Amino acid sequence: MIWSRRRFLGASATMAGAGIVDFPGKHTSSITFQTHSQTDLAATPPIELIALNRMAYGPRPGDVARVRQMGFTAYVDEQLNPNDADDALCASKLTSARLRIQYDAGMGYPAVDEMRPLRTIIENWGLAQLWPLTKHPAYQERIRPVEEVRAATLIRAVYSKWQLREVLVEFWHNHFNVDAYSDTRISATWPLYDRDVIRRHCLGNFRNMVRDVAKSIAMGFYLDNAFSRDGPANENYARELFELHTLGQENYLNHLYNRWRDVPGALEGNPIGYIDQDVYEAARAFTGWTIAHGQTISGSLRLPDTGEFAYVDLWHDNAQKRVLAFEIDPNQPPLSDGETVIRLVSEHPGTARHICRKLCRRLLADDPPDSLVNRLARIWLENKDASNQIAITVRALLLSDEFASTFGRKVKRPFEVVVSFLRATNAEVTPNRDLFWQLQEMGYRMFNWGPPTGHPEESAAWLSTNGMLRRWNIINYLQSSWLKAATFDLPGQTPPGLTARQIVEFWVGRLLAVPPPTSTMNRLIDLMRQNGSADAPPTGSADEIADRIRSVVTLIAMTPEFQLR
Amino acid sequence: MTVSRRTFIVGCSAAIAAMTGSAVRGLAFAQPGDTTRRDILVVVFLRGGCDGLSLVAPVNDPFYKGARGELRVEESGQNAGLLLSNTIPGADFRLHPRATLLQSLYINRSLAIVHACGLRNGTRSHFEAMDYMEGGIPESGVPANGWLARYLNSINASGYLPAVAAGTRVPFSMVGFNDAAALTDPTSFNLSWNSWRYRSQLNQALDAFYSGDSPVQQAGRTTLTAIARINERLPRDSQGRVIPYTPETGVRYPGGRGASLGNALRTVASLIKMDIGLLAATVDYGGWDTHEGQRWIFPELVAGLAEGLYAFYNDLWRYHDRLTVVVMSEFGRRLKANRSGGTDHGHGNVMLVLGEGIRGGKMYGVWPGLATEQLDNGVDLAITTDYRAVLAEILIKRGALQTVDQVFPGFRGSLLGLAYSPGETIERPHRVNLPLVTR
User: Fold this and answer.
1) Residues of B with CB below 8 A from A231's CB?
2) Taking all residues of chain B, what is their mean pLDDT, rounded to a whole number?
3) Rg, chain B, Cα only
4) Are A265 and A271 in contact (CB under 8 A)?
5) CA distance B334 to chain A (A)
6) Hey, how many other C-beta atoms are within 10 angstroms of the C-beta on A298?
7) Which of A374, B32, B116, B242 has the greatest number of CB atoms lying within 10 Å of its CB?
8) B168 touching A, CB under 8 A?
9) How distant is the Cα of B182 from the closest Cα of chain A, in angstroms?
């Protein structure tokens, strides 16, 4: 597992002053992938640990033994078929959770300060219950639903048995990124986007997922398509549909071609990529797709104020269009133009490669081998009509040689740092706003990422000085007396009678997938033993020993090894 | 000495700075790594594609008026643009009405405007355009490192804390400079151990863990170095407590839409005043992707930009002889407004350059016109000045760059003459009669 700084950051220490610039590739390809090298094999932990660190948010106590016993393939198949009825611990944590809501009195509403259950989650609130919240005079009530989803997301990440689903939900939320705090119509209805769009399709069929995203309240307002109408159309959604949701930037060929017919393959009906002309035409196809929020259509004719998806023919551009060299005739039935575009972009081979590479970059490494990406893309396309297209593709990824033979090629994002620490230490989670504020300061803004890209995937993006300092400090903050987002009993979980060395080994085993260097072990043991022997139980007052155990655990979570998965 | 707002704006000649300098604690310019003859370069990036046609608007252009409708800046009336002198031929260029404080800086000759400027690559993708622009070599795709990183490497920038991104992460322009630090607040940039008892042992262990050469370890070491250096320089009271940063009297960084910019600029100002050897800083200001509701959002963003730059420049009046600020964005916006009250992704745009070493109060560039055949692809403001012409000139004349090729290999554009070379006499009156600025 050798990565040089140069590879990693695409850095340039050697070129200082030389006036030489070399271009190994895009800066986003950070960690060079090497399979089956000797260093890899030496550093590759057992498959259970690889799995629990990459298709889960790290192991909780007992997880490793369970996966080992059932077998990796069986674990993958279990995880691909989540069953909410079989998730009692998580369900009870969701039910018992309380998230504070506090605001002062205002015009026509009283002050509130209470610990409130996650009602929108545990009672499965629908549009009829959520939409009225968009009118609530208190801002805290208008954003309450997204705050509840954030709390539930943390609880599920820590406690849910269905870890792969949680990992993929995070993936798709970032893929179809929406800043829920950008518009209170989005924040108030966020449980619908989370539950009925992202969670519903996270292992399902991609085309259906794109369709439901396109019709969602969240995306409609976030990328403005709810306001788009004929003459000139609003291009925001159409552009990101191509660039981010489907074909991806690597298939955007506008710097090479100005006319659709110049794109290779276009005259045969199979253009290899897209250009601005496709974006313009697609934007026209989606005119009239909107969310009913009481807006005037014409004269006294208004859409109802319900938050339902609506199609307004009067705002639709009915003329013929050409998207990805496919000709759409004029005057098609309602929604047909947009649905055709969704089919074209969802089923494009460029989309298959883009999504499969992105899945690999989430679950495997920043720079996955093309051979694997292409193999997965074939599976993706072969199953384009399958109701479990995504599950089939993810299964092939998880069962690939590459998945089993690599480790530590991803830097944990802040959310993963926090959740994997909470899981390894068997902490009791009590979500609060301060924790999400801390995550934000670390650069992780859950459901609040402004640009439509979602959070950066590449490891280097998470290694700034700010990011490093805060990933060290958050381990301390979580255990501090002021953050109150979790409670720990580290001394209590330490088996009695262990020597100083064994205590360190116990906690290293809980937290790290690969053993750290001997020098690190010695530092940890020195901290644990102080003036005593490494091979005797630690001496000192109970308070001192507890302080040392907490310090050792803290320090393990601050090692370079804990930052990787 | 009392510093009125007036002297803030105008009191920026080298003579005045030198006079006051002796009385100001910590104004020793000779720093580790000798930064004496280089300007501190601050790059403000307007993320999302700022509408340059509204920021510096060709208010009387018939194509502009026709295509923009209610979204345009007008010639007269309530939404009239602010007058600018020394503009380029082709139109009556006006600043956005909410940019009063930028107008003050322009009148003061501190601010220069370059129009019809940008990335010549035809992309209308935010993310691709930013990568190309911050990479700085768009002919060859996206390079491995950013243009600021190549600059800092080329001058062997080895100051105490040579490069800072005021935010949670380092933007691509600085990626590849190994000592680049990202931080949001220097006063709290420190480790927070829970254990008091074992603190020194914990510190030593952490140092040891991050002494290796893996990417994570190198990142950790850069961080530990930055923590040590910042904390060594932070002003402290007699009890050793960190003194919170206070801007110069009368300086107010913006809130509202401009709060993110204001906070980041405030951080940069505080670091500069710590004399920490800063040579380059980046600041991001997002929210400019105004596909919808531009009438309401854009004016607030502009007000934030103007207030932020004005506050920052005044806050650093003691440093005016070595400070240059560049404002850029990945692209401008479509000439023709869409039907949802916004503008879509465009091409040519405005760049702003601020500093005492800048021949300000003047517009630069060549106006291509807005008739359909004059537009890029028939829809967007064409680009007549490569954005690198502006950056290259600043790096050569105000920075310490030797040859343009070190940062922008292959770039062959000519410079605009907007910056003074070192040693050139800066033509600036000591006092200018400014319109009274009330806030």
Assistant:
1) 339
2) 89
3) 22
4) yes
5) 11
6) 9
7) B116
8) yes
9) 5
Question: B409 vs chain A: nearest CA distance in angstroms?
Answer: 8
What CA–CA distance (Å, rounded) separates A111 from A384? 52
Domain layout of chain A by residue ranges: 414-563
- Cα distance between the two ends of chain B: 23
| B85 close contact with A: CB closer than 8 A | no
pLDDT at B127 over 60: yes
Q: Cβ separation of A224 and B292 shorter than 8 Å?
A: yes
Which residue's entry shows tokens 């259950």? A117
**A522: contact with B, CB 8 A cutoff:** no
ipTM summary value: 0.91
Provide the shortest C-alpha distance from residue B220 to chain A (in Å). Answer: 6
> Are residues B150 and A24, on separate chains, in Cβ contact within 8 Å?
no
Residue with tokens 């920490």: B276
Length of chain A: 565
Reading phi first (left if > 0) and then psi (alpha if -120 to 50, else beta), residue B265 is in alpha
- Which residues are B324's β-sheet partners? B41, B355
The residue ranges of every structural domain in chain B are 5-406
CA dist B73 and B69 (Å) reads 9
The pLDDT averaged over each successive group of 10 residues in chain A (565 residues) is: 31 32 35 38 83 98 98 98 98 98 94 98 98 97 98 98 98 98 97 98 98 98 96 95 97 94 97 97 98 94 97 96 98 98 98 98 96 98 98 98 95 98 98 97 96 94 96 98 96 97 98 96 98 97 98 98 97
Nearest beta carbon to residue B195 from set A15, A519, A551: A551
In B23-119 the beta strands, taken as DSSP E runs, fall at 40-47, 56-58, 82-83, 93-95, 111-118
User: Which residues in chain B have Cβ-Cβ distances shorter than 8 Å to A236?
Assistant: 289, 291-292, 342, 344
Chain A residues with CB under 8 Å of B216 CB are 411, 463, 560, 563-564
Cα distances from A275 to residues A9, A26, A528, in angstroms, run: 30, 20, 61
List, for residues A111-145, the tens digit of each pLDDT value. 999 999 999 999 999 999 999 999 999 999 999 99
pLDDT, tens digit, for every residue of A175-224?
Answer: 999 999 999 999 999 999 999 999 999 999 999 999 999 999 999 999 99
Q: Does A518 touch chain B (CB under 8 A)?
A: no
Polymer length of chain B: 439
Nearest chain A residue to B179 by CA distance is A465
Among A466, A543, A547, the residue to mutate for chain B (most B Cβ within 10 A): A466
The CA distance from A543 to A459, in Å, is: 39
Q: What is the CA radius of gyration of chain A?
A: 26
- The tokens describing B338, both together, are 């869409």
Report residue A387: phi and psi, to 5°. Answer: -75, -15
Q: Give the global pTM.
A: 0.89
Residue A544 sits at the chain B interface (C-beta within 8 Å)? yes
B280 Cβ contact list (under 8 Å, min separation 6): B40, B41, B42, B43, B148, B151, B152, B157, B162, B163, B164, B174
Q: Which amino acid belongs to residue B24?
A: V
> Comparing C-alpha atoms, which of B351, B358, B419, B337 is closest to residue B383?
B351
b (16+ CB within 10 A) / e for B92-102 = ebbbbbbbbbb
Please state, in angstroms and rounded to a whole number, the distance separating the CA atoms of residues A196 and A215. Answer: 11
Phi, psi at residue B57, to the nearest 5°?
Answer: -100, 135
Picking from B162, B181, B156, B160, the residue whose alpha carbon sits closest to that of residue B170 is B181
Angle of CA points A80, A81, A85, to nearest 5° = 140
Rounded to whole angstroms, how far apart are CA atoms A87 and A91?
A: 6
Determine the pLDDT at residue A93. Answer: 98
Give the single-character DSSP code of B184.
Answer: S
